[in-house]
Design brief:
Blueprint: H1 3-32, H2 38-47, H3 52-63, H4 83-93, H5 103-121, H6 124-133, H7 135-142, H8 160-180
Helix pairs in contact: 2-5, 3-8, 5-6, 6-7, 6-8
Length: about 190
Amino acid sequence: MNKKRYITIFIIFMLLVLGVISIRQKLVLKLLHPRLYEEYVETYSKEFSIDENLVYSIMKVESKFNKNAISNKKAKGLMQISDITQKWAQDELKLGKVDIFDPETNIKIGCWYLSKLYKEFNDLDLVIAAYNGGSGNVNKWLNDEAYSKDGNKLHKIPFNETKNYLGKVKENYIIYKSLYGEEEANEKN
């Protein structure tokens, strides 16, 4: 065989190897970034106009999809709903008594709360920061030149937990969008 043919065969072989690696990488990423509780996420993300990929990203970071998770601050379930947010949602949504560990209930309240935060902040980073650090804190930071130069965006987050949380959720959000596509009808940013 001549040199050109060897090079052609080598290039084809390398392309096949790269294709297999790419497919395997995507499969591994999908295993690490599942879409659990899909029926509830789809239903309530649509009802409250929230991107499904954001909901999955928050569940992954908050609870690693453990429906019985309880944080050191006593937030509960898949989306780590605090007692005060649960009570607020029960009143606003007229839910009555609920089991916050029930995946459907937890996802419904989490999506409702995200929609409230979007109405308040209309900015993905601020919504994610408020989901973790509280909307009161985010509003304080926006009004403090040490954290916000323009009152609309944060250039610094004083809580390390919230800063790290924002980075983790956004990283997962990018991965979920790349694996499962954009949710154009639900896109908020």
